[in-house]
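Sequence only, no structure available. Ideas?
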Amino acid sequence: MHTSIDELYRIFRLYRLGDDFFGSSFGISHADFRRLTSKPLDELHVVDVEHYVSRALTTWGNVGHFKHFLPRLVQLTTDHYLDFERPNAIFSKLDLARWKTWPAEESKSVGRSLIYFWERQLALPGDFPIDQRIESVLHGLQQACGGLQPFLERWLTIDDPSAALHLAQVSRNISSDPSDEDNRRRLGGVAEAVRDQIFPWLASNSVIRYLRRHQLALDRSFPNLIDQLRAHEECRLGDAASGPTAGVTPSSQLPSQPRVGRA
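Reply:
I predicted one. Tokens follow.
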């Protein structure tokens, strides 16, 4: 077990299910309760927790109950992300539970587990050039954290061909012409907030350098990707310079305001 997951179990072990858990639901069957409570927490499987995580905090249980299950939910989502019917459900529930407002030890532990989840997803192989798992993962992390910068920065520190291939996949999809019908369909699963954060980052020198280091691994599935990214960025900058707002400092270059992340 990874240290960040082990830490979650240690920190959240104080949250136990009491009688209030069994009276805290609407429309939940006795069989649903038995599935969740008939075995130790670390032996629960996706099929055992999926119904709960989809209903948690809305029609089933409170934040204390959610914290009880959280270590196993994070562990299962990390190791079996695509086995969930709604793999990003846990991230929307973390947002709903306002995890950033939890005691410092708890919130820091959750943050570390999310970084580990991200690293684990990047290390897994994909079905290139059509894989969309990382775009879904980014959407989930955006839901939970309200921003992606720490995850994007971490991406470029992982010297692994799988991570580079995932970056190439996302680059191909998000940098495609949004007016093209096929590209619109491909981008349909990527939240606008995710695209807005990633789009200007993709053509940065740091991303280009990272992709170049792994060019041999990329060429089979993504030939000419780096040249396409450069050309796309030059075209975008040219349009901006000749448009009606030419001469106006882009908002991305203005002094940044303090960002308030979603709790």
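The chain has two domains: 1-123, 128-242.
Hope that gets you unstuck.
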